[in-house]
Amino acid sequence: MRALRSEDWWSVWLGFAIIALVAAGWVTAVPKAAPWSTHLDDAWTGSPGNLLLFGGMLVGITAVAVHATGHDLRRYIPGALVVFLFAWFAQVIGAQAAFKSWGLSYALWALGLGLLLSNTVGTPRWLEVGARSELFIKIGLVLLGAELLVGRIVELGGPGLMVAYLVTPVIILMMWSFGTRFLRMPSKALVIIIACATSVCGVSAAVAAAAAVRAKKEELTLGIGLTMIFTVGMMVGMPALSRALGLDPWVAGAWIGGTVDSTGAVVAAGAMLGDDAEKVAAVVKMIQNTMIGGIAFLIALYWVAKVEPTEGERPSARILWERFPKFVLGFLLASALASFVLEPLLGSDGTDTITTITKGFRGWFFAMAFVAIGLESNFRRLTEHLVGGKPIVLYAVGQSVNIVLTLLVAWLAFGGALFPPPG
Known about the structure:
single chain; mainly alpha; 20 helices; about 75% helix
C-alpha cells in the first residue's frame, strides 16, 4: 500500500495520534522554556529527565514514519535527538526577556543555530539523516489545524472576515504577478513562498506553500529569513504608526492582524495599543491562518496544471491527487475535529486545555523543523537566490501594498463605514 510509505500520510496519522493521546488524557503537559532575564537557570524549572523523556517521545513518534518510509532508524535516532536538543536550546534563547520583547522568537534562533553549524564545520552525515524538516513541518501544520476553531473565527463576523479574506488573495496574486512578470525571478517557488508569507501568516504559510510546490530548502530558508527579519520591525513600527495616525483601537488591531506576519508578533503589537486592539488583531490573524490549507491546496493544483505539469501527460485527477499535499487534508480535518466534535463535547475550556497541549507539541515540531532547515541549507546556495536583491524588492513592494490596502479595508470594516462600529 503506497500510503504506508508516504511521508505526507504519516504526518496526518501522527498528528491525529498526538491529538488522540492528549484528548485521552495520556499526555497532560509539554515541556516549555520559562521566561528569564539574567539567570539562565530560570529558563528551565523541570527536571532534565522529563525533558529527555519528552525528546525520546517525539523522536519515537517520528521514528515510526521514518521506518515505514524505508529509512535506517539506527542513523535517524541519534541525529534526531541532537536536533531536539538544538530545538530546546533555541527555545531557551527565545524565552529571554529582551529577545522576546524584540520579537526574536525561537524560530529565528532555531534556524540560526542550524545555519551556523552547516556553514562553519558542516553538517555531519549522521546528523543530516535526523534532520527530517518536511516531516516535522507537516506534523506541526496538522496540529496547527486543531487550534483554529470555526466558532471563534466568526466571532468578529463580517468585519473580521472582510479584512482577512478580501485582502489576502489580492496580495498573493499581485505579488505573484510582480515577481514572475516584472522582476522575472528565476525561482517561481521562491515567489510564491514570499507571497504567502507576506499575505497570510509568515512562517506557517511559507512552509505550507513550500511543501505544496516542493521547494528547495534554500528557497524556504530565504523566505523564512526575510519574513522574520521584517516582522521584528513591523511589530514595533505598526503600533507607533497607528498612534501617529490616531486610529481607533479596533481599526488599528485589524490593521496589525492583517499585516504583521507572525501570530506572536501580532498579539504583542496589538497589546501595545490596549485590550481591544489585541483582541481584534489576534482574531483577524486567526482567520487568516484558516486560509493556509485552502491556499496550499490551490497552489498545488496550479503548480501541477501550469507551472510544473507532468511531462507528456495532462493533469488528470489521479496526478492531482498524487501531488496533492496530504497535510492540507489533515490540517482541515483537525480543525473540523476540534470545532465540531471536541468543542461540543468538552466545551470551550476543555477544548482549550487540549489545544494548549497540542500547540506545545506543534511548537516543538516547528522548532525541530527550523533547526533541520538550517542544517540542510548553505549560504553559498542561498546567495544564488539573492542576485539583484529581487526577493527583498518583492517582499518590500508586496508588504507596502499590503499595509495600504489592509488599512483601507480595516477602516471600512471596523471604522463604521460598512458595519456598525464595534464595542
